[in-house]
């Protein structure tokens, strides 16, 4: 189980690093746009991300 968590963390780092590696200008623009969002909007995006991850996990766990 611990190995799976380390693997998941490694995959997150790989995916998170792709945009700044391949498109640094667009990555910077995304963060500039995110700074313009309200706390409520950011929380909603975070909630949607968590729910999508939970749904994917549940679907793949079968």
List keywords for this structure.
62 residues, mainly alpha
Structure, briefly:
This protein is mainly α and 62 residues long. The chain has three helices and no strands.
Layout of strands and helices, then pairs:
Layout: H1 2-22, H2 24-35, H3 39-61
Notes on the protein architecture:
The structure is a single chain. It contains 3 helices and no strands. It has helices spanning 2-22, 24-35, 39-61. Helix 1 (2-22) crosses helix 2 (24-35). The chain is flat, with a radius of gyration of 15 Å. It starts with a helix and ends with a helix.
Beta-strand percentage range: under 5%
User: How large, in whole angstroms, is the Cα Rg?
Assistant: 15 Å
Sheet with the most strands, sense and barrel status = none
N- to C-terminal distance: 16 Å
Order of helices and strands: HHH
Q: Unreliable runs, pLDDT <50, ≥5 residues?
A: none
Mean pLDDT: 94
Count, helices: 3
The shape, in one word, is: flat
Quaternary form: single chain
Helix content: over 70%
Alpha-beta content class: mainly alpha
Number of strands: 0
């Amino acid at each position: 189980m611990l190995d799976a968590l380390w693997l998941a963390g490694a995959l997150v780092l790989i995916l998170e690093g792709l945009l700044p590696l391949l498109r640094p200008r667009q990555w910077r623009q995304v963060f500039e746009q995110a700074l313009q969002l309200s706390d409520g909007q950011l929380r909603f995006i975070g909630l949607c991300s968590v729910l999508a991850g939970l749904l994917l996990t549940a679907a793949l766990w079968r």
